């Protein structure tokens, strides 16, 4: 059980290649999740009962299913449909990378729906009414008042979700993509040294998650600078930051619960 | 639907065996993590000193890397790790580590700090008066912990604990990549040979949704019992 | 008293869904009705507010006074009767609401400033978005009104950095930036610490002195005596009594008002 620095050095390019794939997938999934999540959140919160039910089903299925299963479904399942097989869509679904981003994106977007919905419903009526009373059109009130406040409320939960799904990108190995974990595995298969590649890969993951976390915390400080004063935090207790500030050994928290106890969440 | 039948023609028995592996894995890992997490919470209660620092480093590592990586590490390197741990005591053993043990150990390693953190902040939220009241009644220290502080902290941490359970349950899905024949692996084999991915992966999705829903229901019923004697707050 | 400022000259209301009536009243309510499920909150309120008139609306909690003024700018939809603001009718289905809101400014009990915007942004937001003013023009207008409520020096701060009284004065300035011809106040001092009430009331009194049409829900009797042309007592969703301030407080007629005033003094 030794760490082989020479091996770590020579395998660095391969691991960095894998890390690049992990980053690429993470960023793409965040983009897909933001777009799909925002759209489906509007569907989920629609006054139309049928639409809202579709939104709820979307969340239940894509949040309840482990992401690896969604990957298999997209990669192995969708090409069986003739609409995919017999049209140019086939070109997209033949790409494991596309399938991975779509599969993880569906899972991630379902969490985004719930985070955004939680944020939107946490926005107090007061500022929204004030904006309406000023004669602003409802669309502007939503975009400029309700949404910015909701984003601030949801930022912490979103951070937790992104950190968790970054770690869940290891599932892309299931559809033959060589990400950081895949690269480490390959080096193990060649050298029969499990420790050096896996520990090096672990260090890279640690840097990625913590870098992302520090980025989120900087964003949080920027967006919430209006609360930086000494005035007590009046936001609802559920969205208050538990321990503000920058500390390297703070652990990312956990995703919200699916299904019913939506009001109960950690921090 | 005959494909889901039990026996040689269907994949019902394979799927059921796989589901059993998934459930066992989740339950064992969670129970171990809960026990070790409680221990860790109590040991790292004061936010300073060596124990706390070690706890923070461990938590940072465990929560900063994917659990699959830890599973691989323990699966491929477990024999060597056990050997290295036993060698100082003069035991020269190189036991083979079964995949199930590696997976349970890895998930326990990853989820212990999550549960510890929940319980620690819950312990810090138990009113100080509770400890003082028990002390002035000269209740023994062990009893204060077991009968006064931990039960109250558990009630506070309960929703978070349920939360982690669901996250862990879904995280077990990755073990198929390390060669364990869990529900996912069974579904993969079945869909590969029958070319019915929707059917089999659909079954998996339904299993995960229903199983987490059922356990959450159970947990909520339990939480109402824990809430006995507590006045509901305004929210 | 602050500097006297010209009252914005009335311009014809924009033609929209609302219909323009021939009337001189600023607000005209006829038989206004509103119910929440089973409960009837307003049971036929008829009230006319003339241009430039200052009216104080009071009554026990749950009497419907907040609902009444929230109906006037369409934050609540009324179920029956008619509402006309500067001749623009507000339909029960919400037609005309944007036109009415351009005419009417509102100040809330809990200020309701936009927490993520600075004081200045709070004031320039609506003029820029709803009136299409340029950033510079909106800022100039905002600074003018912030100076009017004596808080121009805080323009760069966020609401959370201000005291309650300061926040409420910003809220008044924010409403004034839309050049409303009528101001509604919904218990503007009820959420304030006692030492901050005076600074807000003073701004309101100055506004009154400059000729603004005002409809205020408030229990500040000193303010009512100084400023109100008429006091209206609402109880159980109907107007029980209305009179000039002096007679209202000194010689109330109905028993309900007498009882209410007795409780107020305690």
UniProtKB/TrEMBL annotation, chain A:
InterPro entries: AA_ABC_transptr_permease_3TM, ArtM/GltK/GlnP/TcyL/YhdX-like, MetI-like, MetI-like_sf. It is a multi-pass membrane protein. Pfam families: BPD_transp_1. The keyword Ligase does not apply. Residues 19-216 form the ABC transmembrane type-1 domain. It is found in: Cell inner membrane; Cell membrane. Keywords: Amino-acid transport, Cell membrane, Membrane, Transmembrane, Transmembrane helix, Transport. Its main location: membrane. The chain crosses the membrane at residues 20-43, 50-75, 87-107, 162-183, 195-216. SUPFAM superfamilies: MetI-like (SSF161098). The keyword Cell membrane applies. PROSITE patterns: ABC_TM1. Belongs to the binding-protein-dependent transport system permease family. HisMQ subfamily. NCBIfam families: HEQRo_perm_3TM. This is ABC transporter permease subunit. It comes from Azospirillum endophyticum. The lineage of its organism: Bacteria, Pseudomonadati, Pseudomonadota, Alphaproteobacteria, Rhodospirillales.
Automatic annotation (TrEMBL), chain B:
Gene3D superfamilies: MetI-like (1.10.3720.10). Pfam families: BPD_transp_1. It is a multi-pass membrane protein. It is found in: Cell inner membrane; Cell membrane. It comes from the Bacteria. The chain crosses the membrane at residues 20-45, 57-76, 96-116, 156-178, 198-219. Keywords: Cell inner membrane, Cell membrane, Membrane, Transmembrane, Transmembrane helix, Transport. The keyword Ligase does not apply. PROSITE patterns: ABC_TM1. CDD domains: TM_PBP2 (cd06261). Residues 19-217 form the ABC transmembrane type-1 domain. Belongs to the binding-protein-dependent transport system permease family. HisMQ subfamily. This is ABC transporter permease subunit.
From TrEMBL, chain C:
Residues 27-261 form the ABC transporter domain. The keyword Nucleotide-binding applies. InterPro entries: AAA+_ATPase, ABC_ATPase_HisP-typ, ABC_transporter-like_ATP-bd, ABC_transporter-like_CS, MetN_ABC_transporter-like, P-loop_NTPase. SUPFAM superfamilies: P-loop containing nucleoside triphosphate hydrolases. Gene3D superfamilies: P-loop containing nucleotide triphosphate hydrolases. Belongs to the ABC transporter superfamily. This is Amino acid ABC transporter ATP-binding protein. It comes from Azospirillum endophyticum.
């Amino acid at each position: 059980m030794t760490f082989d620095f020479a091996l770590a050095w020579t395998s660095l390019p391969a691991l960095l290649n894998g890390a690049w794939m992990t980053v690429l997938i993470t960023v793409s999934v965040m983009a897909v999740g933001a777009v799909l999540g925002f759209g489906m959140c509007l569907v989920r919160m629609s006054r139309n009962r049928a639409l809202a039910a579709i939104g709820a089903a979307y969340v239940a299925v894509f949040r309840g299913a482990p992401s690896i299963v969604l990957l298999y479904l997209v990669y192995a399942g969708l090409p069986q449909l003739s609409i995919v097989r017999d049209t140019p869509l086939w070109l997209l679904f033949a790409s494991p990378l596309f399938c991975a981003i779509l599969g993880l994106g569906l899972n991630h977007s379902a969490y985004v729906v719930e985070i955004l919905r939680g944020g939107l419903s946490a926005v107090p009526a007061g500022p929204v009414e004030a904006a309406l009373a000023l004669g602003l059109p409802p669309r502007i009130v939503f975009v400029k008042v309700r949404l910015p406040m909701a984003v601030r409320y949801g930022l912490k939960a979103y951070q937790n979700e992104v950190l968790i799904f970054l770690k869940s990108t290891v599932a892309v190995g299931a559809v033959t993509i060589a990400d950081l974990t895949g690269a480490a595995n390959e080096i193990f298969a060649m050298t029969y040294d499990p420790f050096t590649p896996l520990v090096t890969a672990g260090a890279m993951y640690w840097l990625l998650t913590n870098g992302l976390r520090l980025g989120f915390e900087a964003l949080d400080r920027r967006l919430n600078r209006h609360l930086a004063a000494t005035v007590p935090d009046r936001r609802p207790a559920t969205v208050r930051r538990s321990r503000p500030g920058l500390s390297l050994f703070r652990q990312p928290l956990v995703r919200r619960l699916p299904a019913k106890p939506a009001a109960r969440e950690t921090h | 639907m005959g494909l889901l039948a039990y026996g040689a023609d269907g994949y019902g028995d394979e799927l059921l065996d796989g589901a059993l592996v998934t459930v066992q894995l989740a339950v064992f890992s969670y129970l171990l993590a809960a026990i070790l997490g409680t221990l860790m919470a109590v040991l790292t209660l004061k936010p300073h000193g060596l124990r706390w620092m070690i706890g923070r480093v461990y938590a940072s590592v465990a929560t900063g890397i994917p659990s699959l990586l830890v599973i691989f590490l323990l699966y491929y390197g477990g024999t060597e790790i056990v050997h290295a741990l036993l060698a100082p005591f003069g035991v020269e053993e190189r036991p083979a580590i079964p995949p199930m043990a590696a997976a349970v150990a890895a998930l326990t390693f990853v989820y212990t700090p999550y549960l510890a953190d929940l319980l620690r902040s819950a312990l810090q939220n138990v009113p100080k008066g509770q400890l003082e009241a028990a002390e002035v009644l000269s209740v023994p220290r062990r009893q204060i912990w077991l009968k006064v502080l931990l039960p109250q902290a558990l009630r506070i941490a309960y929703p978070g604990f349920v939360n982690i359970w669901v996250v862990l349950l879904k995280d077990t899905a990755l073990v198929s990549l390390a060669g364990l024949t869990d529900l996912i692996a069974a579904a993969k084999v079945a869909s590969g040979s029958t070319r019915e991915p929707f059917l089999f992966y659909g079954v998996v999705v339904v299993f995960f949704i229903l199983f987490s829903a059922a356990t959450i229901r159970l947990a909520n019923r339990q939480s109402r019992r824990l809430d006995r004697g507590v006045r509901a707050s305004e929210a | 008293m602050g500097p006297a400022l010209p009252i914005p000259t009335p311009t014809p209301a924009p033609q929209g869904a609302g219909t323009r009536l021939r009337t001189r009243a600023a607000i005209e309510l006829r038989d206004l009705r509103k119910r929440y499920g089973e409960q009837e909150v307003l049971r036929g309120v008829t009230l006319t507010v003339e241009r430039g008139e200052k009216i104080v609306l009071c009554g026990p909690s749950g009497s419907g006074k907040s609902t009444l003024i929230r109906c006037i700018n369409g934050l609540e939809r009324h179920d029956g009767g008619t509402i006309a603001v500067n001749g623009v009718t507000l339909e029960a289905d919400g037609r005309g609401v944007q036109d009415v809101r351009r005419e009417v400014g509102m100040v809330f009990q809990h200020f309701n400033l936009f927490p993520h915007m600075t004081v200045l942004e709070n004031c320039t937001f609506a003029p820029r978005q709803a009136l299409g003013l340029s950033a510079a023009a909106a800022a100039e207008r905002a600074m003018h009104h912030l100076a009017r409520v004596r808080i121009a020096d805080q323009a760069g701060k966020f609401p959370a950095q201000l005291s309650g009284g300061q926040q409420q004065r910003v809220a008044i300035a924010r409403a004034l930036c839309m050049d409303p011809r009528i101001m509604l106040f919904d218990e503007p001092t009820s959420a304030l610490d006692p030492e901050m009430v005076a600074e807000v009331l003073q701004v309101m009194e100055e506004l009154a002195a400059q000729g603004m049409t005002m409809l205020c829900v408030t229990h500040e009797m000193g303010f009512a005596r100084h400023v109100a042309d008429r006091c209206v007592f609402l109880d159980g969703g109907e107007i029980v009594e209305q009179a000039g301030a002096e007679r209202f407080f000194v010689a109330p007629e109905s028993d309900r008002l007498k009882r209410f005033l007795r409780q107020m003094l305690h």
